[in-house]
Known about the structure:
- The chain has 220 residues and is of the alpha/beta class.
- The protein has one domain (8-217): TIM Barrel, CATH 3.20.20.70.
- Helix content is 41%, strand content 17%.
- It has nine helices and eight strands.
- An eight-stranded parallel β-barrel has the order 1-2-3-4-5-6-7-8, surrounded by six helices.
- Helix 6 packs across helix 7.
Amino acid sequence: MENTMTSRADAAALIDHTLLKPESTAEDVAALVAEARDLGVLAVCVSPSRLPLADTGDLVVATVCGFPSGAHASEVKAAEAKRAVADGADEVDMVINLGLAKAGGFDGVEADIRAVVEASGGALVKVIIESAALTDEEIVEACRRSEAAGADFVKTSTGFHPAGGASAHAVELMRKTVGDRLGVKASGGIRDAEAAEAMIAAGASRLGLSGSRAVLDGLK
Length: 220
């Protein structure tokens, strides 16, 4: 890709190199870590049962919580987050209770997020709002509640919802809502440099990618 606005190095510094397929093996995860180090990305993101990771070097280690449905009891999410941090996670990407959000129960959404934030003991918490399944008004309120609950980031998508993944519109709306107070992570369906650049231009400060090499190769 020519005339890109983002350099390969700058993009790599935003990437959570991700492997969350349920069928992934220990060998697959080891390969992910090795590839992440080779690519010079910021972080790897894996399922919590894959922790602790070996040979991570300077990589940030992220995991998921209440994934992918978000329809777990808050106590279970909190326990999962606490265990993940004990197992070496630096960051926890949790899924909101979508059913509560769709029903307008945002006090419950906020309480659910807060339970995970408190259980994470200072680890960075990203809140997956599953933006493709929400209206604009619901996206804004989910972001507001994430901030009120003490989260560090809001994140578009799990990448597993049938409604779809990240969109530049959702990222822009999320960034407008949280300003520079929280990070915004775009994830789900970002497969090439053009899509990655659109997310960065819209306000994303982190990218969740499973095909990081293909994206970075488009930014040479």
